[in-house]
Specification:
- Keywords: Hydrolase, Signal.
- Pfam families: Abhydrolase_1, Abhydrolase_4.
- One of its GO terms (biological process) is proteolysis.
- One of its GO terms (molecular function) is peptidase activity.
- The chain has 504 residues and is of the alpha/beta class.
- The chain has two domains: 292 residues, Rossmann fold (3-Layer(aba) Sandwich); 107 residues, no CATH class.
- 38% of the residues lie in helices and 13% in strands.
- The protein is built from 20 helices and eleven strands.
- A nine-stranded mixed sheet has the order 1-2-3-5-4-6-7-10-11, with helices on both faces.
- Strand 6, helix 7 and strand 7 form a beta-alpha-beta unit.
- Helix 10 packs across helix 13, helix 11 crosses helix 14 and helix 13 runs antiparallel to helix 14.
């Protein structure tokens, strides 16, 4: 998810079709039988099954224009497999789950012994009627950081996407996508399955559970992005809280405090000294460039590392260096999110089709106060994009979270800058007695990737009853410490700081 991976991370269009009822989706699915054939995927040592599920672009017109959704089934290893597979819902919005098949398979070995793993790229992502904008990873730093230029690129992308056969951008909402997912369940003859959603995938999982509660055996939501979470307003609030926590943690940690004794002051001085002309190495191209650095560029640069505590441990040193005029470390950490890997590149057309329809119209209802440093940075960008982006119809019920029909495991990272525990706590209360919330204080955006959580996930899904599932001990990661601040070798560092750093 990466949820709502940072980008940079109002009139409704006329004639929007109402979202169909589940029965309509089921009839459309029956028209084109799903056929699976043996295939190979990168990173997987064994054959899997691949196919294409045909679905109407506009669900209210089941005989109208069709789109193909890419499906992959990783068969269970054991012959006596269980009837309830596991399906994953990717983050973003805009991430391809099929591109992550090797990662999913490697982390779910125990589960996949007796359960099929079912993956389908959500409409608008991967090879499912993709809404992909041009790759901007090779832009110069100045081009990549220019908000006005970014808005122009996104407007050009929208115009190009609308020319595609599947380019009616109103039909890529989460509600419609989850009807696609249930059509897949029916096409595979599955009575119930287990959902695992991460980041934006948690919103998708909650929406699926709302529409099709009888089909959910277990639900695991990691890094909760509730349907009523108003993006990008929460971006500013939650990232500010994560940055404030990092600065406070450094001040309270002897090694960090002695190495960077004025970190909060240096951070403020860094911002106050902008704009300024700087020379830095572009973390993606490796080329040294000269550009005028603005305040918005620096606050965006610190957001990415905050997703991953190991990267965030380098921020104190990077902030100190930047305050002294060396921006290379800060830019390097910012480019560490994703590293240009294809599977982490979001389909930005799908991203904005979701956010502009589901979140942006509700900006005026948000109670999240803008962060001191992040202010309305993202709101301004999304306002520019969403002003002209076609918006799908979102049913009022989408923003509600009914009681969980079965055991639901809610996971939150205490250091998460985008889906922190406050969202997971609220949704757990809404889900009721069949939901349990596990907070890992030192985890960032994503808890399931932690080493011991694979066993927790297996025990939760493998439990025979909801009561047994809710008793599964998920405290194994609770004592995991935050990574110590990285202190670069420095002969001028005070001796106490050297000793404290060595002790860490």
């Amino acid at each position: 998810m990466t949820l709502f991976k940072p980008v940079a991370l109002l009139v409704l269009s006329a004639g929007l079709a109402l979202s169909p009822q589940p029965a309509t989706a089921a009839k459309a699915a029956a028209a084109e039988p799903l056929q699976l054939k043996p295939c190979r995927l990168r990173g997987l040592p064994t054959e899997v099954q691949c196919g294409t599920l045909q679905r109407p672009l506009d669900p209210s017109q089941p005989q109208g224009k069709q789109i193909g959704l890419r499906v992959v089934v990783i068969p269970a290893l054991a012959r006596n497999k269980l009837p309830d597979p596991v399906t994953f819902l990717a983050g973003g919005p805009g991430q391809s789950i099929v591109e992550l098949a090797d990662t999913v398979a490697s982390r779910m070995r125990r589960l996949s012994n007796r359960r099929d793993i079912v993956l389908m790229d959500q409409r608008g992502t991967g090879q499912s009627a993709p809404l992909q904008c041009a790759d901007d990873s090779r832009l110069s730093a100045a081009e990549g950081l220019d908000s006005a230029a970014q808005l122009r690129r996104l407007e050009a992308c929208r115009a190009e996407l609308e020319k595609l056969p599947h380019g009616d951008l109103r039909y890529y909402t989460t509600t419609i996508a989850m009807q696609d997912l249930d059509a897949l369940r029916q096409a595979l003859g599955i009575q119930q399955w287990n959902l695992i959603g991460a980041s934006y995938g948690t919103r998708a999982a909650l929406e699926y559970q709302r529409q099709f509660p009888q089909a959910v055996r277990r639900n695991v939501i990691d890094g909760v992005a509730p349907p009523d979470m108003v993006l990008p307003a929460s971006f500013s609030t939650d990232t500010q809280a994560a940055l404030d926590a990092l600065l406070a943690h450094c001040a309270a940690s002897p090694g960090c405090e002695q190495a960077f004794p004025k970190l909060a002051t240096q951070w403020q001085q860094l911002l106050d000294g902008l704009p300024r002309t700087v020379h830095l190495v572009n973390g993606r191209t490796g080329k040294r460039e000269t550009l005028t650095l603005q305040r918005q560029h620096v606050v965006r640069a610190v957001r990415g590392p905050l997703y991953v505590p190991m990267l965030a441990s380098g921020l104190p040193a990077a902030i100190q260096a930047a305050a002294q005029g060396d921006y290379d470390a800060l830019v390097g950490l910012a480019s560490g999110m994703g590293g240009g890997r294809k599977e982490l590149r979001l389909a930005m057309g799908m991203h904005f089709s979701v956010v502009c329809a589901e979140d942006f119209p509700r900006m005026g209802q948000s109670t999240d106060a803008p962060g001191k440093h992040f202010e309305r940075l993202d709101a301004e960008l999304y306002a520019g994009v969403c002003a002209k982006w076609p918006r799908g119809a979102v049913p009022a019920e989408f923003y509600s979270v009914p009681k969980a029909p079965s055991a639901t495991l809610v996971l939150s990272g205490g250091a998460d800058p985008v889906t922190p525990p406050r969202h997971g706590e609220r949704i757990t209360k809404a889900l009721g007695s069949l939901a349990t919330h596990v907070v890992v204080p030192a985890a960032g955006h994503g808890v399931l990737a932690l080493p011991c959580m694979g066993e927790v996930l297996f025990r939760f899904i493998n439990a025979k009853t909801d009561a047994e599932a809710l008793k599964v001990d998920a405290s194994c990661a609770a004592k995991m410490p935050l990574p110590a601040a990285f202190v670069p070798p420095n002969p001028d560092l005070p001796e106490p700081a050297k000793k404290a750093s060595a002790a860490q």
